[in-house]
Automatic annotation (TrEMBL), chains A, B:
Listed GO MF terms: DNA binding; DNA-binding transcription factor activity
Gene3D superfamilies noted in UniProt: GntR ligand-binding domain-like, Winged helix-like DNA-binding domain superfamily/Winged helix DNA-binding domain
Record key words, sorted: DNA-binding, Transcription, Transcription regulation
PANTHER family documented for this protein: HTH-TYPE TRANSCRIPTIONAL REGULATOR MCBR, TRANSCRIPTIONAL REGULATOR, GNTR FAMILY
Domain HTH gntR-type stretches: 18-85
Database matches in InterPro entries: GntR_C, TF_FadR/GntR_C, Tscrpt_reg_HTH_GntR, WH-like_DNA-bd_sf, WH_DNA-bd_sf
Keyword Translocase attributed: no
Protein name: GntR family transcriptional regulator
Length: 238, 238
DNA sequence: AAACCAAAAATGTGATCACAAACCTTAACC
DNA sequence: GGTTAAGGTTTGTGATCACATTTTTGGTTT
């Protein structure tokens, strides 16, 4: 069992309110999003079932669902793995995020009321706190919550599932970004976003969101880091 | 069995090369996309399994996959159905299509070579032929193929799955559109798109794609038709 | 020593079964 | 008559099993 690198998945408490399949889905989703599973590493139903201590059935369903969201890739061999990344694909994912999320932000703008604005302010504040404490994982989670809170202001929202799919695909590789980003001084684009919201200025909001996304992946400007990780991903367990 | 309206699904030949699950998935997907299943109608695994003459297992997996693509909706009761439509949601889906597809088109533009251009020309011609023959279903299919051929020119394409998800969600309600659109004279936006491609003019291409999408759903300009169908969808089998 | 091939182990797919929760029907009751 | 409560039925979930295909292994040949 050397070639098959061990998989370490953070297990959360299983709530009886959710089905086993849902719990497995959430667990695997978190593992994928945080790069706990090496891209290219073959995932087998029975192995995951052993790790998670459930029967193969819920794992089957969860894997299929994650594959449908492009978080996992099913090869012709019917083998499942986290997709490998390339520099070009990474770039396309980022540009897609910008296109869709700035659209979603503009569409949500008219629906943002005082309550929502306060919620955004609070999240922004929590992000600052987490940033000062250097808790990058928390920053990442809160940042997602901020974006989600913004887009879901639109009660007829239809793009969030698409956006989450992009987050899932970028997730494993963003971890690398944030870990190197520690030294990088971050301008708070969320403040810009919120002043744009107060002014109901859609264009300014789109600019702020675009800048926020671009800076979150600023390390893409240092291609050698991205390249090194992508190489790692490419040469991983075949 | 009056409340439970019968489901009529077009069955295609089952190819032994694909798994039963895949076949069921394709069959159900086609049925959803073409509005063969009434929005709100509760879908049960065993019923579909009887109709498709397969065991419940492949149906289970196919339903979960379609739900992950937002083609179906899983309610809290764990019941599965085609999501109901609202006028606002319809509008959001259309605007999302425009945002994402014009982005995808611009991103694909630099990769379009002579071969791809010829392929697009041929599809455009086939659409004209089908249009003259009044075969609206064929027009719809070919139109999708045209868009797909355009976006997939980009070898690092990541947005097509998202776009197809939007198509799936709009599908059941587009049928109504095209059926009323027969009388409507359609300007051929594909020609505009292709001349923009030849000039490598990204902005013009985006305008052409936007116009093409907007006209494909032109009936949204006649709100009463949309509204009537949405009402039908809303008041369908509870 | 590297390449090839057959046997053995492991894997995904699909079927069937058990069970608890949800749904529908029926009957009693206000 | 409309509402509620309890019964039986149907449904989704999850477990287990069988089988064909794939992957790995171990031995053989060039």
């Amino acid at each position: 069992m050397d070639k098959k690198s061990p998989i370490e998945i953070t297990l959360t408490e299983r709530d009886d309110a959710v089905t086993i399949t849902q719990w497995v889905y959430q667990t695997l989703r978190y593992a994928v999003m945080n790069g706990q599973i090496l891209p290219g590493r073959a995932l087998t139903i029975r192995e995951l079932a052993r790790i998670l201590d459930v029967s193969p059935m819920p794992v089957r369903e969860a894997l299929r669902q994650l594959a449908a969201e492009n978080a996992l890739e099913i090869q012709g061999n019917r083998r499942v793995m986290v997709p490998r990344m390339t520099a070009m694909k990474f770039n396309e994912l980022c540009e897609a995020r910008i296109a869709i999320e700035s659209h979603a932000a503009a569409r949500a703008l008219p629906y943002i009321d005082a309550t929502r604005l306060n919620q955004l302010r609070e999240l922004d504040h929590l992000i600052d706190v987490a940033q000062e404490q250097g808790d990058l994982e928390q920053v990442s989670i809160l940042n997602q919550n901020f974006h989600r809170a913004l887009y879901t202001a639109n009660p007829h929202q239809v793009t969030l599932p698409l956006i989450e799919s992009l987050w899932l695909q970028l997730g494993p590789f963003m971890r690398l970004a944030t870990s190197k980003l520690e030294e990088h001084y971050l301008i708070d684009r969320h403040n810009e976003a919120m002043s744009a919201i107060e002014k109901q200025d859609a264009f300014a909001l789109q600019l702020a969101i675009t800048a926020d996304i671009r800076e979150g992946i600023a390390f893409a400007g240092t291609p050698e880091l991205l390249h090194s990780f992508i190489e790692q991903s490419t040469h991983a367990v075949n």
